[in-house]
Design a protein that fits this description.
This protein is 35% helix and 16% strand. It is α/β, with parallel strands linked by helices and 412 residues long. The strands form two sheets. An eight-stranded mixed beta sheet has the order 3-4-2-1-5-6-7-8, sandwiched between helices. It has a six-stranded parallel beta sheet with strand order 11-10-9-12-13-14, with helices on both faces. Strand 7, helix 6 and strand 8 form a beta-alpha-beta unit. The protein is globular and about 65 Å long.
């Protein structure tokens, strides 16, 4: 079955969470013997626009580059759509997977449907419901609830220096484009129940029937984690925190929690990731000056830090963001670590008895839970014993996606 995949970026240009998941899915398909065509967008702009193509085993990647006038507020872009249609007509795919539209055009699901393909729409983040992507408004602005979009106006005006009536009309058009894409898709997939419920809430008048298919581990062949008894360093709790380092991920809350410990000198915090907000690690250190904080900087992929993470006791992810999935939870569990995760979004769905789900922003609650892991080795070992021996992988997700698509499209 010929498949065409729409991705926001070629990973050789940019790798965010969506790109990592998409290309892990593509590699899983190549391992299954499939050949897949990919259309990506780009942050580059070229006078008149352009297209580039490259190949790698099992994949043909076509990048559509915008022209300068095709800016972010132009979410429907005729030239990228026409280029998509040209590539579609050359390939004639039976299945089109849509993963994001911000860098291309917000009408490609409908374009694929018009040409007779079955369409699968993946909801990786909040962009379909929020033109500023993440539904994390600045101070003083609250996101609207349900189908209301009125509070989006002052938030969008941060980027759009237009009169209020024009911004309000633009938000209406954007929302209508999102609704039309959702209604056109044959199958809609979200990576977590929390994200599926959230997106349904924002389009509560549409019966979306969102299917939940968790990603699982992107590194599908990691070695088994060691089964350890007791802490790595006797008398010390070694905490791992990894991923992008920004305030929304609760980095400062972790610092506040460690600063409340009765024995902060018995804590070692190992931090890995890109400091997307400069100074956030220094601020964390200032909040827990007696704790031993080691910042290791960016890492290319989890496989590159796996041997370091397995030598920690627990992982902590106190995110304040409405996480749609949270790959770090799977990765920490794969390293044999109990996970302490916030109750914001999807992080807590996969913790089970192998950790604790704690209120986002409540540093005192995080301090109590993590200090218990320091002082009560029986408690720490009970959490570790609950970590599953095998983690779900992206290969499992791809097989489930195909089963879901086959079942739902065969009914039509």
């Amino acid at each position: 079955m010929k498949r065409l995949v729409i991705s926001p970026h070629d990973p050789s240009e940019f790798q965010g969470g969506t790109e990592r998941v998409v290309y892990a899915m593509l590699r899983a398909r190549v391992r299954r013997g499939e050949e897949v065509a990919v259309i990506t967008g780009s942050e580059r702009v070229i006078d008149g626009g352009a297209s580039e193509s490259r190949g790698e085993p099992g994949l043909a990647v076509h990048t559509i580059i915008r022209e300068p006038r095709e800016t972010a507020e132009m979410f429907n872009r005729p030239r990228p759509r026409a280029e998509f249609e040209r590539i579609f007509d050359a390939i004639r795919p039976e299945i089109v997977e849509w993963h994001h539209g911000a860098t291309l055009s917000f009408d490609l699901v409908r374009a694929a449907c018009d040409r007779g393909a079955k369409t699968v729409m993946f909801l990786h983040d909040m962009w379909v419901s929020c033109p500023r992507h993440f539904r994390i408004p600045p101070a003083g602005i609250a996101c609207p609830i349900g189908t209301d979009r009125n509070n989006c106006v002052p938030c969008a005006q941060i980027d759009l220096a237009w009169p209020e009536p024009e911004v309000k009309h633009w938000i209406y058009l954007y929302t209508e484009a999102a609704r039309a894409e959702l209604c056109a898709a044959d199958v809609i997939i979200a990576p977590s129940r929390a994200h599926a419920d959230t997106m349904q809430h924002y389009f509560s008048d549409l019966p979306l029937n969102i299917q939940v298919v968790p990603h699982g581990l992107l590194d599908y062949d990691l070695p088994p984690a060691p089964r350890r008894r007791g802490p790595v360093e006797p008398g010390t709790l070694t905490i791992a925190h990894f991923g992008n380092l920004v305030a929304e991920k609760g980095v400062q809350d972790l610092g506040r929690a460690l600063g409340m410990f009765r024995h902060p000198d018995r804590v070692r915090l190992e931090i890995y990731g890109s400091e997307l907000q400069p100074g956030v690690v220094d601020e964390l250190r200032s909040l827990c000056p007696a704790a031993r904080v080691q910042f290791h900087g960016p890492y290319e992929g989890f496989r590159n830090i796996y041997d370091k993470i397995v030598n920690c006791d627990v992982a902590a992810f106190p995110s304040r963001a409405p996480e749609s999935y949270g790959l770090v939870v799977d990765e920490a569990l794969a390293a044999g670590l109990p996970v302490f995760a916030s109750n914001r979004g999807a992080l807590g769905e996969r913790v089970g008895k192998a950790g604790e789900v704690l209120p986002a922003g409540d540093a005192a609650a995080w301090a109590r839970a993590l200090e218990r892991a320091l002082l009560d080795t029986t408690y720490l070992e009970s959490l570790r014993d609950a970590v599953p021996a095998r983690q779900r992988t992206i290969d499992d997700a791809v097989a489930e996606i195909d089963a879901v698509v086959e079942e739902l499209t065969s009914r039509g």
